[in-house]
Amino acid sequence: MAIVVDDSVFSPSYVPKRLPHREQQLQQLDILLGNWLRNPGHHYPRATLLGRPGTGKTVTLRKLWELYKDKTTARFVYINGFIYRNFTAIIGEIARSLNIPFPRRGLSRDEFLALLVEHLRERDLYMFLVLDDAFNLAPDILSTFIRLGQEADKLGAFRIALVIVGHNDAVLNNLDPSTRGIMGKYVIRFSPYTKDQIFDILLDRAKAGLAEGSYSEDILQMIADITGAQTPLDTNRGDARLAIDILYRSAYAAQQNGRKHIAPEDVRKSSKEVLFGISEEVLIGLPLHEKLFLLAIVRSLKISHTPYITFGDAEESYKIVCEEYGERPRVHSQLWSYLNDLREKGIVETRQNKRGEGVRGRTTLISIGTEPLDTLEAVITKLIKEELR
Ligand SMILES: Nc1ncnc2c1ncn2[C@@H]1O[C@H](COP(=O)(O)OP(=O)(O)OP(=O)(O)O)[C@@H](O)[C@H]1O
Description:
- This protein is an alpha/beta fold.
- The chain has 3 domains: 22-189, Rossmann fold (3-Layer(aba) Sandwich), CATH 3.40.50.300; 193-274, Helicase, Ruva Protein, domain 3 (Orthogonal Bundle), CATH 1.10.8.60; 280-388, Arc Repressor Mutant, subunit A.
- It has 17 helices and 8 strands.
- The strands form 2 sheets. The chain has a 5-stranded parallel β-sheet with strand order 2-3-4-1-5, with helices on both faces. Strands 6-8-7 form a 3-stranded antiparallel β-sheet.
- It is elongated and about 85 Å long.
- The two termini are 50 Å apart.
- Adenosine-5'-triphosphate binds at residues 12, 16, 19-22, 51, 53-59, 133, 190, 201, 240-241, 244.
């Protein structure tokens, strides 16, 4: 039986039914653009969406369009700045999207613009223009399209609504001050997704695209732990695209192996394909007993076949590992500081067990999500043996 029951749910163009944790941004966009979309022509709406990759900027825009596409006379024109970088390519793509005949070359910039203006006016067209990944565009090109929207006299109406999408403020700061002034204060920010937010996004995706029972919430949690930000200010993580990609790869890996369920090891292998795994250099630098504790965690995870083990499991396993290597175990509090260090170095992930199933109080759960356990065990064992030789 297939685990992936609907591939389209994992494609970049998929727009999910709801966008958890982006309700506010969607509403802000609606406030800025909704009136114009319902009844275009009376003013020039514009917005800038800022946030690091995978924070939902594009999908929120697509959602807004989905809400309005049957209620508006405007057309959606989406320009990806990675693909269309120079002026001629962009204006050519706009013309193609609007289905208007246009020469490919041979005109000056001003002539091209005049021709576009003429078509918009003559054909009574309105366009909702999105310049995605706009930091790829030279500031003068960006300025040209920002200013175009103001030309109500030439256009015969305010025929353009403009959204610029970038990763940070540089996309606006690089503009000359007067053009920046046109974009004004209409900035909508997309912060990196936290672990819990990524979990919610993954759960929706899994329900829509994977067979029931093929994944556990712990598996989704495990992926959320390695991709989600610790706090909304943690800009190294928080990319929903990466999380969804790891889920998709894990599902396929399990399916190709003829299994019905995604296993923790599928996640580790898949995440290693897209992240970098754990480098040996980082492991070499760990004190001997931190290495022994890590080996204990690895072994405990291997035996359990579950995404998480408890701190207690790791401690028990550590005692056995110490015995094996003839070392005297370090005390409980020292193990906590090892665990903190391993977490700060990104080698393990930890979370609190809030469910308290059969456990009194809060238990710390430990997982390893970015490196297959066999390779990790082999490297640590080798390092420990070298150190004790
Ligand atoms: N809140 C959300 N709910 C459901 N899916 C989401 C959400 N946010 C992002 N996604 C999904 O994550 C992926 C990346 O999102 P999106 O393309 O919108 O990111 P982006 O911010 O535009 O990134 P980039 O700057 O790289 O273009 C998409 O598959 C999108 O559907």
